[in-house]
Amino acid sequence: MGVMPQAVLLADTISTVESFVDAFIYVYILLILVFIIMSWIRMPYSVWMNRIQRFLHDVCDPYLRVFRRFVPPLGPLDLSPMIAVIVLVVLRQVVHTVLNQLH
Fold first, then answer.
1. How confident is the model at residue 96 (pLDDT cuts 50, 70, 90)?
2. Residue 76 pLDDT more than 90?
3. Mean pLDDT to the nearest integer, 36-65
4. Rg, Å, the chain Cα set
5. 16/9 Cα distance (integer angstroms)
6. How far is CA 92 from the centre of its chain?
7. Whole-angstrom Cα distance, residue 38 to residue 40?
8. How many other C-beta atoms can be found within 10 angstroms of the C-beta atom of residue 90?
9. Rounded-to-integer distance, Cα 98 and Cα 76, Å
10. Angle (nearest 5°) at CA 15 between 9 and 24
């Protein structure tokens, strides 16, 4: 009888971790996409827009810099955000595979 509550608790914990990883990765991908779009479009100066751009730069740029070291820009085209998003999707799949093997 003691094994059953532990198995239920483990399954609930694994599903919670999977949900957290999914939400974190999806939000981070969304932030990267907004960062890219805001870097393409010049908005009129606004205190709030400046704060949003600064926040996006502070959150996204350190992660993107890792890929910019290895992927040279092709003229004006920067492929590092695309590779960064692909790595996040692959990481999500790896985490799901590892957690499913714990079931």
1. very high
2. no
3. 89
4. 19
5. 10
6. 9
7. 5
8. 10
9. 38
10. 135
